[in-house]
Amino acid sequence: MLKTSKPAVLAWKGMFDLVTVGHFSIDLIQSPKILAPTPTLGGPPTYVSLAATQLNSRVSVISKVGEDFPSEYVSWLKTKKVDLSGLKIVKGASTTSFFLRYKNKKRRLQLKSRAPPILSEDIPASMTAKAIHVAPIANELSLNVIEKLRTLTNVLSLDPQGLLRTFDKFGNAELKKWDGLEVLERIDIYKSSLKEIKILTELANLQSAMKKINSLGPKIVLVTKGIMGSILFFEGRFHKIPACKPRIILDPTGAGDVFIGAFLAEYAKGKDPLWCACVGSAASSFVVEGIGPAVFGGKEEVYRRANEIYEKDM
């Protein structure tokens, strides 16, 4: 753990299956089922990593937080076998924090604080990973960082959500057009929500939007649609991946991150993308059964749910 914002040489030991790059967050979640919000650990490094560790992947993160990041979060993540060599605690800074309000099947985001950006010098050249997932949530990553990450892995994945967000003076988030589409030339796997891909491509038709993303570089394009499942496009074919049915839905926060975390965990093992997407769907069906990152299915449970939809598709 580093209490400094200065670059440091990190001792990366061996090859990781998956490294997630982006901010941790402290989330306050409010919904018809969560009337009294309490601070909850969040952000892609949390959900992506925990989904992958459940599938026996060796994971790490590159992230920055403030001095307000609770030490119990650090301890808990370590017990879950998440490597934190790339986590920097920046003195005098605050951790990225969001207020998430769910109402009428819609989510509103309000940014309460933001940690310092992740810079190229924060990425150790010694890092080796089968897959790296780029997952900004509040414009904390530049194109230079993505360029450097491209040189460190054979599989570079991107969720552009944080690159599309703009915030008003009250911190309320809205999606905007992004002018960095040229970076998609460096990306192997693209994942976003339905709304995000339509804004990014300026195309209303989903299949046309996915084909456009594919034409710009990513060989695999994934779009998540909540309870409507997801769509996978690769090798010129579309696959509709059904959503696995959870026992109960308490909190949808992090479901998309869990989806891609499980997908990449399997993809790094050489599994075919259709199976990986089914595992992603299965894994995300567990996390919604709890509040925050509280519920993750075990490997065999996830595989069982995945098998049910994989066999139907095949």
Protein described:
- This protein is of the alpha/beta class and 314 residues long.
- It is 30% helix and 26% strand.
- The protein contains nine helices and 15 strands.
- It has a nine-stranded mixed sheet, with helices on both faces.
- The protein starts with 15 loop residues before the first strand and ends with a helix.
Notable characteristics:
314 residues; 26% strand; alpha/beta; 9 helices
Question: What's the quick description here?
Answer:
With 314 residues, this protein is of the alpha/beta class. It contains nine helices and 15 strands. Helix 7 packs antiparallel against helix 8.
Question: Strand arrangement, largest sheet?
Answer: 5-4-1-8-9-12-13-14-15
What is the number of strand segments?
Answer: 15
> In angstroms, what separates the terminal alpha carbons?
46 Å
Please give the largest β-sheet. Answer: 9 strands, mixed
Percent of residues in helical segments?
25-40%
Mean pLDDT: 92
Low-confidence blocks of residues = 1-11
Q: How would you describe the shape? A: globular
Summed up, the helix count is 9
Q: Using only CA atoms, what is the Rg?
A: 18 Å
| SSE ordering | EEEHEHEEEEHEHEEEHHEEEHHH
Oligomerization: single chain
Q: Classify the beta-strand content into a percent band.
A: 25-35%
The SS-based structural class is alpha/beta
